[in-house]
Amino acid sequence: MFRSIKELLGYQIMAKDGQIGKVEDLFFSDESWIVRYLVADTGPWIFGRKVLVSMQALGQPVWASQTFPVELTREQVENSPDADLAKPVSRQYEEKLFEHYRWQSYWAMSNVVPGRSFFIPPNLFRDPNEPVEENDLETHLRSTRELLEYRVVATDGEAGSVKDFIIDDEGWQLKYMVVDVGDALELENEKMILVALEWIKFIRIADKEILIDLNREAIKFSPPFDPNLAVNRQYEEVLYDYHGRPKYWQVVDRV
Fold first, then answer.
1. pLDDT score at 121
2. Nearest-CA neighbor of 196 among 171, 172, 167?
3. For residue 249, what are the contacts with CB-CB under 8 A and spacing of at least 6?
4. Rounded distance between C-alpha atoms, residue 103 and residue 237, angstroms
5. Confidence (pTM)
6. pLDDT in tens, 122-133
7. What stretches in the chain show pLDDT beneath 70?
């Protein structure tokens, strides 16, 4: 089922023996757009501390009570390696974290969720014309919160701003950006649209903008998105047909 990232922020994270915090953010891989961690704000239990919880530890979410149960104890979380999440998360830190919890390293796994995923170029955050520094290769985690409010730029000019992301809660892969286009396109009324992540050309972190492979005219008349309604296959059919793009669910699985 598709869900809003903003909807998940603030969910309670429940260990086996009590609450450990609330969801502050979700970190995803910039190579696959699969969520790898919940960022838990542990205050007031551990004041001022934020910890990473791997999706491997996640049990069955309780959507009605907005709760994420995790297969951890409060003691495990309290004794987990400290991290400065204001800085990029290094692979060295992840290795310490996975050793502490005895998790299996996700970087040794496939980036594809069979039957559910599409492929996204791994360089959306990296300018192909710029050399890649060796240290940069260790940093592949990105914050969903960081991308909210980024400017969205079409092939022929500004098109809006990012307001949310839509995620598939089966594979935990981000699927769509929710873009507010009303002001940028000088529309009389507010309008939100969905932009599939395959349609992103490049993300400029320094400029806080996302370049997409759509023009302003196509965006202006794109099927509107209502955040109060669920994204279903019927809506996806209309969206992909309007933009004349191949449907990810019809692409032959390459796994």
1. 60
2. 167
3. 233, 236
4. 38
5. 0.89
6. 668 876 666 655
7. 108-123, 127-139, 251-255
- The size of the chain, in residues, is 255
Kindly report the backbone phi and psi dihedral angles of residue 217, in degrees, each rounded to the nearest multiple of 5, phi listed first: -65, -45
Q: Up-side HSE of residue 229: CA atoms within 13 Å toward CB? A: 12
Positive or negative, the CA dihedral 151, 155, 157, 159 is negative
Rounded alpha-carbon distances, angstroms, from residue 184 to 55, 67, 135, 251:
36, 36, 37, 33
What's the per-residue H, E or C state across the chain? CEEEHHHHCCCEEEECCEEEEEEEEEEEECCCCEEEEEEEECCCCCCCCEEEEEHHHECCCEHHHCEEEECCCHHHHHCCCCCCCCCCCCHHHHHHHHHHHCCCCHHHCCCCCCCCCCCCCCCCCCCCCCCCCHHHHHCCEEEHHHHCCCEEEECCEEEEEEEEEEEECCCCEEEEEEEECCCCCCCCCCCEEEEEHHHEEEEECCCCEEEECCCHHHHHCCCECCCCCCCCHHHHHHHHHHHCCCCHHHCCCCC
Give me the residues paired with residue 152 across strands.
Answer: 160, 210
**Tens digit of pLDDT for each residue in 156-191?**
999 999 999 999 998 899 999 999 999 999 998 999
Question: Token pair for residue 171?
Answer: 């594979």
DSSP bridge pairs for 54: 37
Pair 244, 223: CB distance under 8 Å: no
- The rounded distance, in Å, linking the Cα atoms of 105 and 92 is 12
Identity at 4, one-letter amino acid code: S
- Both tokens of 100, joined, read 């502490």
Burial (0-12, 13-18, 19+ Cβ within 10 Å), 1: exposed
